[in-house]
């Protein structure tokens, strides 16, 4: 089977992590094409048999630039679908699923989509409108949780074709190292992950003894969080290690894992820590 996967980007993120796991597994028995919507530096390693495609243009700031970008992206996606003629299309992402469904109209290729954000999140009106109009045209919808399944059933009715499939979790290596007094954070430094709450909570601990906070990841709030740690006098007790592709050593060494998010769909990092 020829499977075409549409991903928002190739950078660090929950959607990208989940799709890379699926792509690498499917590549063992199928032809896999991985189409990125945004040009970015790759973070997750893909099997060398997978054909990777990404646009040459980039998204710019400003409302008119964004409108122009999405029109170009729609044409780019449709062209790739027509060129490769896959047997199945899989798309993850609330913002990009409507574009994939639009791009595939009339091509008679089954498209399966999945939202990866909490069912409670209030999207802009145009995203809600496009999803309302286009999701019924998908061949199937993949819900990560029962809660998401119920929300879609209430929105689209009993006949909406969907099933529940939680995230595919990669194998986390067991490493024979002693546990250390480490509190571990792994994720993007962005508002929805709420890393500032963890730093503030760590500061409230009166007797930290030998405990330290290790924070893995990057993102728009990375510098801001380093400044916060410094202002709280914690620069010698918090390690900001950046984006690491292999976090298994830290998962094995840490004694506590904390997920301070205010918004999640089905968190990969938490599942990996639980394993």
Describe this structure in words.
There is one protein chain. With 275 residues, this protein is α/β, with parallel strands linked by helices. It has 9 helices and 11 strands. The protein has helices at residues 14-26, 63-84, 97-103, 125-134, 146-156, 195-204, 222-231, 248-253, 268-274; strands at 2-7, 31-36, 51-53, 88-92, 111-114, 140-143, 162-164, 182-186, 212-216, 238-242, 256-257. Strands 3-2-1-4-5-6-7 form a 7-stranded parallel beta sheet, with helices on both faces. Strands 10-9-8-11 form a 4-stranded parallel beta sheet. Strand 6 (140-143), helix 5 and strand 7 (162-164) form a beta-alpha-beta unit. The longest helix is centred in the N-terminal third of the chain and has 22 residues, at 63-84. The two termini are 31 Å apart.
């Amino acid at each position: 089977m020829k499977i075409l996967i549409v991903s928002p980007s190739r950078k660090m993120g929950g959607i990208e992590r989940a799709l890379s796991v699926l792509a690498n597994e499917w590549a063992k028995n199928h032809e896999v094409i991985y189409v990125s919507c945004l040009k970015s530096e790759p973070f997750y390693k893909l099997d060398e048999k997978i054909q990777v495609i990404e646009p040459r243009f980039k998204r710019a700031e400003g409302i008119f630039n964004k409108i122009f970008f999405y029109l170009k992206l729609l044409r780019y996606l449709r062209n790739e679908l027509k060129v490769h003629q896959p047997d199945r299309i899989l798309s993850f992402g609330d913002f990009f699923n409507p574009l994939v469904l639009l791009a595939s109209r009339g091509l008679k290729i089954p498209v399966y989509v999945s939202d990866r954000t909490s069912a409670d999140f209030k999207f802009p009106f145009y995203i809600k409108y496009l999803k309302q109009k286009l999701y019924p045209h998908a061949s199937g919808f993949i819900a990560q949780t029962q809660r998401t399944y119920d929300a879609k059933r209430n929105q689209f009715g009993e006949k909406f074709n969907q099933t529940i499939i939680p995230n595919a979790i990669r194998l986390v290596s067991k490493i024979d190292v002693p546990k250390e007094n480490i509190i571990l954070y792994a994720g993007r430094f962005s508002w929805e992950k709420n890393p500032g709450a963890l730093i503030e909570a760590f500061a409230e601990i009166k007797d930290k003894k030998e405990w330290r906070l290790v924070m893995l990841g990057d993102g728009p709030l990375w510098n801001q969080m380093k400044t916060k740690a410094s202002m709280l006098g914690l620069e010698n007790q918090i390690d900001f290690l950046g984006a690491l592709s292999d976090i298994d050593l830290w998962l094995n060494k840490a004694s506590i894992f904390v997920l301070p998010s205010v918004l999640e769909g089905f968190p990969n990092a938490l599942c990996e820590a639980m394993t």
